[in-house]
Amino acid sequence: MEIAQGIHRITVGQGAAPGLYATNTYMVIGSQGAAFVDTGWNREEDIKARLDYIRQMGNPAMKGIAITHRHPDHMGGASAIHQATGGPIITSPVEKAPIEAALKDAKVDKVVQDGETLSLGNMTLEFVHAPGHTLGSMAVFIREKKALFTGDNVMGTGTSVVNPGEGDIALYLQTMEKFLRYSPEVIYPGHGPVVKDTRAKLQGLINHRNEREQQVLGLLQKGPRSVEEMLKAIYDELDERVQTMARNQIRSHLAKLEKEGKVTATGTDTYRLR
After folding, report:
1. Which stretch of DSSP H or E encloses residue 90?
2. Which of 76, 190, 201, 225 could anchor a disulfide with 42, C-beta 3.0 to 4.6 Å?
């Protein structure tokens, strides 16, 4: 469906985890071609919905298929859309290798640097390096509309997952500050509804991460703690189905604090203040 002039959202199926919205994929149609931002899962119903939509829109010339990050719910359909339209698959330098490892029938055609652009005539897509959710996450900004497509760095509701090793909390916070400097009027997230109160949303995500870090430090001020003990103290009565994600958020905060010299590991998943 067209959610703003020239911006279309195609959302299929259910989310990959409890409480998570299905993946948003976007088709931007300009006066001189079109581009996708993310492609959804490599599933028959997902691919069919997107290819049908392209046909309904009159098969516009596909100038690019931008993949915000490596996760299969965002890049899984890239091969099918590439084969159907001939549009080049585009991502950041860091995401290229994991995306190509997952794609069976296509390669990344173009790696873009921070600030590089793609013209669709009356709209220009700017590719924004946005590490955080993953180390190579990428956003897309349309200056003519002051619209920011964030992938999973920003969700329509709630907060993003930053897993240790795959993402980085410190970089995530830097990316949120970077997004604020773009002053978007609208955010199109990787999952969930459109965000209109963009400054409050981005500042809220920064505040949330800083508050979570203070919770971790507060617990460690009382003595060494395991990740499991921190989980129970911070996420009281959390649904078992999302406890693994919560543990990983704690581990990501601990990795940041350890890198900063504020905490040290005393055993497997156990930490103390340095």
Report:
1. strand 89-91
2. 76
